[in-house]
Design brief:
single chain; 361 residues; alpha+beta; Immunoglobulin-like; Glutaredoxin; 3 domains; 7-stranded mixed β-sheet; 10 helices; 15 strands; 44% helix; 23% strand
Length: 361
């Protein structure tokens, strides 16, 4: 009998050990008046995915689940905007903090999060300097000192170059860590094709199954199809007049595809320049194809009228901007030749003027 009990206990212990490596438990203690539940999500490389919720009772809560692989986790109190962000894995993790300062709560129990926190500490100097420069820039703009504002902008740009070089060094030093894959994706996803390739190559290929590695790799493959010299992928969207218009219908003209939105202030500031270029070169065989990522059709139509955009305007109700053209920010532009071959990417202002003069003169 004793032998049987021993075997049962041993099996239970082994099962418990196995379970602990395949699941996580997050035990939190938060001070403050908390009426709403806490929500746990993980970032899969594209979006936040819900994992668990828990009531906060006497300042304590417990969240449970299983991660297929280590991931960036987000904890938020329902109804509040701030959140706690930390790197999680299938371990027992503790959280202690103040509900009114949730983002500053202390997280223990995840070695990967220790790596992530070390990275954040390294970046603190750059973050502090960035905030300082931002304040100085706003002050310079406020008093109308454009020369000083330009000098501050140049200093910021130089700081950003140095910051990204430091991030690359951190990624290289932690090349086999999921944290490095997350940083590569999260920080460099909006950079140009060559920069993204460089950063991906810093990672250990053994991370190829990691979600963050895969999303960045997939994006690089997409961008490779959108480089100068490639034929721009075709698409068909609905115009402001309700007609279906395909990109290939504009073959025979030089076309500038302009991804924009009514709510995008940089886009709106660029529109008068676009009108100028269209007026100057349209008679020579140049046109613009506006592709809006607006969700509000009325706002889109109003912006077209207000800004005097006389070229074909389409609304992206199929998600082609991100899925086919990898658009992560706007404005984004592609200049095509009459055969649909990409001549330039994100060309605008003086560069666009120079390129069009080169083509038509």
């Amino acid at each position: 009998m004793n032998k049987t009990l021993f075997i049962v206990a041993a099996i239970a212990l082994l099962s418990s050990c196995k379970s602990s490596t395949n699941s996580f438990e997050i035990n939190g203690v938060l001070s403050g008046d908390i009426q709403n539940p806490v929500i746990l999500s993980f970032y899969d490389g594209k979006k936040a995915v819900p994992l668990d919720t828990a009531l906060v009772i006497d300042g304590k809560f417990s969240l449970n689940g299983a991660l297929e692989q280590p991931a960036m986790l987000l904890i938020q109190i329902e109804g509040q905007r701030q959140f706690l962000q930390f790197f999680g894995e299938n371990k027992t993790i503790t959280i202690n903090g103040d509900a009114t300062k949730l983002s500053e709560a202390e997280v223990k129990g995840s070695p990967l999060n220790d790596t992530y926190q070390a990275f954040k500490q390294e970046m603190k100097l750059f973050d502090d300097k960035t905030l300082e420069l931002r304040d100085q820039y706003q002050q310079a703009i406020g008093i109308g000192d454009q020369d000083k504002a330009n000098a501050i902008r140049n200093e910021f740009n130089a700081l950003e170059v140095t910051r990204k070089e430091n991030i690359k060094q951190f990624i290289t030093s932690n090349a086999s860590s999921p944290v490095a894959a997350y940083l590569a994706l999260n920080i460099f996803m909006n950079d140009d094709f060559e920069q993204q390739k460089e950063v991906l190559n810093l990672l250990n290929p053994e991370l190829a199954a990691n979600n963050y590695f895969k999303v960045l790799s997939d994006n690089i493959q997409l961008l490779e199809q959108l480089q100068v010299g490639r034929v721009a992928p075709d698409f068909t969207l609905t115009s402001k007049d309700g007609e279906n218009v395909g990109l290939t219908s504009l073959r025979g003209s030089y076309v500038l595809i302009d991804f924009w939105a009514s709510w995008c202030q940089p886009c709106r500031r660029e529109n008068p320049i676009m009108v100028e270029k269209y007026t100057q070169f349209n008679k020579h065989g140049f046109t613009i194809l506006g592709v809006s990522v607006d969700n509000d059709r009325d706002a889109w139509l109003k912006a077209i009228e207000e800004d005097g955009l006389g070229w074909t305007q389409l609304i992206d109700d199929k998600g082609i901007s991100a899925e086919i053209y990898g658009v992560r920010y706007i404005p984004t532009t592609y200049l095509l030749d009459p055969n649909g071959v990409i001549l330039a990417v994100n060309i605008k202002g003086d560069q666009l003027q120079q390129k069009l003069e080169e083509i038509f003169n």
